[in-house]
Amino acid sequence: MSFDHTVRSGQRLLRCGYTTGTCAALAAQGATRLLLMGTVPDELTLCTPKGWEVTVQPEFCRLQREVAVCSVVKDAGDDADVTDGMSIVATVQKSAVPGVTIDGGKGVGRVTKPGLDQPVGAAAINHVPRQMIMQQVTEICRICGYAGGISVVISIRGGEEAAKRTFNPQLGVEGGLSILGTSGIVEPMSEQAIVDTIALEIRQHAAVTSRLILTPGNYGMDFLHAQGWDARNVPVVKCSNFLGEALDCAAMEGIRELLLVGHIGKLVKVAGGIMNTHSRYADCRTELFCAHAALCGAGTEVCRALMSAATADACLEILEKAGLREVVLQSLLQAVQRHLTHRLGDSCRVGAVLFSNQFGLLGSTPPAKEMLEQW
């Protein structure tokens, strides 16, 4: 069944798709309907967190004794996605445990390192997909007047093999893929179209001001709002992973004061001179933490722990326990400032602010502190 939402990319229209989280929720809905209602649904429909409705035909939906199994095929639209065309399967049965329990089966990875969306040992089904699955199953139970427990197990056909072509093993997700998605929708867009959009937005702001704040994405926007920095009459532009292009454009358009605000997981890469922060170009977060920790006197045990950490927040926890968090962050901030200054030269005063969802504000470079005080 076609999913008919599109986004414009230059002169092309690219077809949107839906996430593995949406597929898992739809499959869970189908299996629960069969289990409690006794009929195979012709179609499955839900409203995603983005507000878009997704309707699919199940790949199969069958009852095996007292266990219902339903499969939904992932459609990534025109986005290049390793999970496109894969079968997301929900196995549902009644349970003596109250409420709805959700777990991962074959092809869904397990979390083996701290700092990810789910705790160590849990199935790599992120919290938004879990909420979507819970919502679909709970609603069917309500309609049927069923008040007992329900067990849902999500699996992915071919997930173990496909996961080897992703960053899951390095992140600490072993044995399969992750069930992901915050909006429920996959919106494809060419890199050049994104860069062109960023450049246009910077150009529009530069026509009325010489000050600008850059942030990679929604985490940065939320942090800016929480700090009240988005209310200082300085425009904010989301630059996604394309930091280098955004910096160049800001300088070219005459921006004279530029503040870069970002999550440590993204901007730690700038300490290594990396100006495209997408993981497929470079993912050296732990290496940079390790190198700067070693410069600050960290021992072999700490360095090995940093190299094995799954996330930037996990690195910060290791440094905190070793009493090295502040000194290492200062070392990283100095390197970030050095690379930003090298990129922009004398054309623009630039500074950076790093934060973490877990630890909050981590630190600012001297030019950033000066600009924030003046603004």
Description:
The chain is α/β, with parallel strands linked by helices. The chain has 2 domains: 6-186, 2-Layer Sandwich (CbiD-like); 191-374, no CATH class. Helices cover 38% and strands 24% of the residues. The strands form 7 sheets. Strands 6-7-8-12-9 form a 5-stranded mixed sheet, with helices on one face. A 5-stranded mixed sheet has the order 17-16-18-19-20, with helices on both faces. It starts with 5 loop residues before the first strand and ends with a helix.
What distinguishing features does this structure have?
CbiD-like, alpha/beta, 13 helices, 375 residues, 5-stranded mixed sheet, single chain, 20 strands, 2 domains, globular
Radius of gyration: 23 Å
Supply the number of structural domains: 2
How widely separated are the two ends?
52 Å
C-alpha geometry: globular
Strand order of the largest sheet: 6-7-8-12-9
Write a short abstract of this structure.
The chain has about 375 residues and is of the alpha/beta class. The chain has helices spanning about 20-35, 125-145, 160-165, 170, 190-205, 220-225, 245-250, 265, 285-295, 300-310, 310-320, 325-345, 365-375, and strands spanning about 5-10, 10-15, 15-20, 45, 55, 60-65, 65-75, 85-95, 100-105, 105-110, 110, 150-155, 175, 175, 185, 210-215, 235-240, 255-265, 350-355, 360-365.
